[in-house]
Write a structure and sequence with these properties.
single chain, 248 residues, TIM Barrel, 12 helices
Length: 248
């Protein structure tokens, strides 16, 4: 099955609304002929500004988090209905930084994924192991557990339309990058896990990304692997080099 490539930027806690406008104006001509889908996941305060700035372009806007309730007494949170109303198309769920700093659980991430689909928002579901888990040869078992927990109760059709991002925790923001062989091995494991949970057509349809110190010099090699369909890009998505990564 032919899967369209996708490159998503995760700005994390960077860029003011004014800076967002300036950066997107520079990014637009760099990616206007891209064959891959282009997504930028921005801080909540930048969402409306980013959607306005990208109107009429091939750049889609994503959020970095979402609550699983429609509304309520959840100070500081953003509901799926709010994101849908704003025009958000994607949302990052289960990023290792939120799992660590905000104590998000697999059960919460599962509820968020189900709710995102209800509102027509595509989850970018993150998974990844620590360095210690890799050293103990626990990577495959840990990744499978994360995938199975996150997809509990998610329909086959929804899974086919979701995105999974493999981000080894030891490679996020460290300058360390999994080799193309290491990244491919885990992405292939993810695809095999989905096939076991659903079927081959479903595993063939889902797009799997690699994230973890992706940059303009290593993107092409990583993206050439058969089970890697693009990247979730952190720090490099804040620079004009993001255009080079998209076109890799």
């Amino acid at each position: 099955m032919s899967r369209k490539r996708i490159v998503a930027g995760n700005w994390k806690m960077n860029m003011t609304p004014a800076e967002t406008v300036g950066f997107i104006s520079k990014l637009k001509p760099l990616v206007e002929d891209a064959e891959a889908d282009v997504v930028v996941c921005v801080p909540a305060i930048d969402i409306v500004t980013a959607i306005t700035a990208t109107r009429g372009t091939n750049i889609m806007i994503g959020a970095q988090n979402m609550h699983f309730e429609e509304s309520g007494a959840y100070t500081g949170e953003i509901s799926p209905a709010m994101l849908e109303s704003a025009g958000v198309k994607f949302v990052i769920l289960g990023h290792s930084e939120r799992r660590e700093y905000n104590h998000e659980t697999d059960a919460e991430i599962n509820k968020k994924a189900i709710k995102a689909f209800e509102h027509g928002i595509t989850p970018i579901l993150c998974c990844g192991e620590t360095l210690k888990q890799r050293e103990l040869d626990l990577t495959e078992d840990f990744i499978r557990m994360q995938i199975k927990s996150a997809l509990a109760g998610v329909s086959k059709i929804d899974v086919q339309n979701m995105i999974i991002a493999y981000e080894p925790i030891w490679a996020i923001g460290t300058g360390e990058t999994a080799s193309s062989e290491q990244a491919e091995e885990v992405c292939k494991t993810i695809r095999k896990c989905i096939e076991e949970m659903y079927d081959e057509n479903t595993s063939d349809a889902v797009r799997i990304l690699y994230g973890g110190s992706v940059n303009a010099s290593n993107a092409a090699e990583l993206f050439s692997q058969p089970d890697i369909d693009g990247g979730l890009v952190g720090g490099a998505s804040l620079k004009p080099d993001f255009g080079k990564i998209v076109n890799a």
